[in-house]
Amino acid sequence: MTSANPARPAPSHPARRDAARTGSTPGAGTGPATRGWPVLVGLLLLNALVAFGGGLASASGVDGWYADADKPAWTPPNWVFGPVWTVLYAVMAVAAWLIWRRHGRAATTALVLYGVQLALNAAWTPVFFGAEQLGLGLAIILALEVALVATIVAFHRLTPWVACLLGPYLAWVLYATTLNAGLAALA
Asked: At the topology level of CATH, where does 36-186 sit?
């Protein structure tokens, strides 16, 4: 990165680069270094809402039809899902926040894609567990994969290392897809 003033090199720290670009002082309470905390909290709450809704939608199914269903041999114990999703939702929120914080309006497409994949994520659980619609659930999770890959590509174009934060989420969704497809095949 070059500086507009050749006598003064460009700052190397992202917060200082943001401050130099916007004219604010990092840590002053109004600059990019601090302005995003309410957005992070909002994203964490939004993801927690999706997780909570998923928990409500899956509770009757997990203890009902899913408990008695023939499952693929690679199905993990039920207790694994809660901790995995908790970590994934938190990391997803942080990734979206980092993209917003670093790129603002330039991240609109990436964040819309993030919202689309989150909506598909929220839709899958009530369809799969609540309505026992394994085929429709498979269609939704496949659409989720497409939206998630598009989100990762969009994040990567903006900040490659932030896109990597969504890698474990993609791996888990791919794994969940195999479980959904396996349950549908065995039904």
From this structure: Ferritin (1.20.1260)
**Measuring CA to CA, how many Å separate 116 from each of 13, 24, 133?**
32, 33, 21
Burial annotation 70-100 (CB, 10 A radius, 16+ → b, else e):
eeeeeeeeeeebeebbeebbebbbbbbbbbb
61 near 18, Cβ under 8 Å? no
Say what angle helices 167-186 and 134-158 make with each other, to 10 degrees: 170
Instruction: State pTM to two decimals.
Output: 0.81
> CB atoms < 10 A from the CB of 56, how many?
13
> Which residues, 6+ apart, have CB-to-CB distance to 169 below 8 Å?
88, 91, 92, 148
So where are the chain's domains?
1-35, 36-186
Residues 105-117: pLDDT tens digits? 999 999 999 999 9
